[in-house]
Amino acid sequence: MKNTRPRSAQKKGDRGRPNLISKMPDDVLVTILSLMPIKDAAVTSVLSTRWRHLWRNLLRLNFDGTKTLKKMVKDKKLCDTERAKYIKQVYNVINSYYNHPMVQDIRIRFDLDDSHSEAINDWVQFALDKKVERLELNLLDKNYSVREPDENYEFWLPSSSMAGEMFSLKKLFLKGVNLNETTLNIILKNSPHLEKLYMFGSNLFPRIHVGGQDINLKHFKLVDCSGFESISLYGFDLVSFIYCGPEIQFHLSDLPKLKELDIGEVSVGLENNVFSQISSCALNLQVLVLDMWSPQKGLDVNAIIKFPNVKKLMLVMGAEEDDCLLEFTSIAQACPRLETFSISLHWYTPTKRRRKVRRVASPHVHEHLKLLEMIGYYGRISDVELAVYFIENAAALEKIVIDPCCHASGGDFTTEDFLKREQAARSSANRQLTPILPPGVNLVIL
After folding, report:
1. Which of 119, 266, 362, 371 has the smallest number of CB atoms closer than 10 Å to its CB?
2. Strand, helix or coil at 181?
3. Are 426 and 445 a contacting pair, CB within 8 Å?
4. Which residues contact 105 (CB under 8 A, 6 or more apart)?
5. Tens-place pLDDT, residues 107-126
6. Three-class SS of residue 40?
7. Residue 122 in contact with residue 148, Cβ under 8 Å?
8. Which residue, among 81, 108, 82, 83, has the nearest Cα to 94 in the 3D structure?
9. Residue 4 buriedness (CB in 10 A; 0-12 / 13-18 / 19+)
């Protein structure tokens, strides 16, 4: 039916509709703005008189330059110009914040290196002056590519910090930022509230020692860091430690609250037995993740220790051809309370070969195992062997999740090749596992 309402009445009615956003209190609007990058939040100042200065009440300054980083990848000529624009933008905002007593959160996200140290030093000084609780310096490119260590920004502390000024930091995230021993010790000793420290692509010093009752750190994560050979963690209430990178020596002691341990790359043979290095903290662990990239060297089964409280175990494994991986179920057997077992398979040569399915010589009943996850399942005999083992020995099994995502580092594969392999893997998983699935067990193929 045609609308016969007079046009003037329609306009009046439209103007009379309530504007929900305009009725919101300022603190709610500021919360909404805090979810945006600061550049977008500042644009709202042109909306009305009320909005003109509203963004300046933000306590979380998110300088996220991800959109610009995408443009820089497509056109390298933009790099110098866009870096200069980004630096100017950050300065413009922090200059308008010098009268604010505090800022809770500062996030720098842009491709910057040691040639921009002067500007980044100013931002660190500003962050400490404003007693930030969360500081993120993410200085890598769009792809998080790790650059040469000497090109990274070297984290700097003002002289007042060297004298023992107390930091308000609770979370510190550093990507593409180097840290020397003195600076790390000052941060840890002078930050009584620091609970989370995350470093990605950092260049560090040969031997890292973190310990003592005056350290409040709860979560420590090192990913793709270089320059160090060993790490010692001792004598404080660490809850989780995650390490991803080249093989190093671990010394873990007197960490009574350590619940989650994720380490790699690790050797499983006699030459560098990871189990002896983590034995002192095995009692309280509930989550254990091990990255083992050379399983073909063989597992020293006699070196495996007991993990009496581990409920989730994940093995990230590199493998060649179709080698049997059943011996690694010995690690699962060392976890009597295990509820979730995950394995992520990264094949150097994702090929299949014909052979008989093997079984473990001495079966072990997993009384509490409810969930089996297999990532990188391709339908090889070795995949089937692992699935059959847990189907036959997990008394409480409820669910099997098969992720056919193809992790293959060998060969020259296109995106189409990977998609074809994943589809083939789905078909293989359905054909191989459905007939042997026990009643009540749910098979999920992603």
Report:
1. 362
2. helix
3. yes
4. 59, 60, 61, 62, 132, 133, 134, 135
5. 999 999 999 999 999 999 99
6. helix
7. no
8. 108
9. exposed
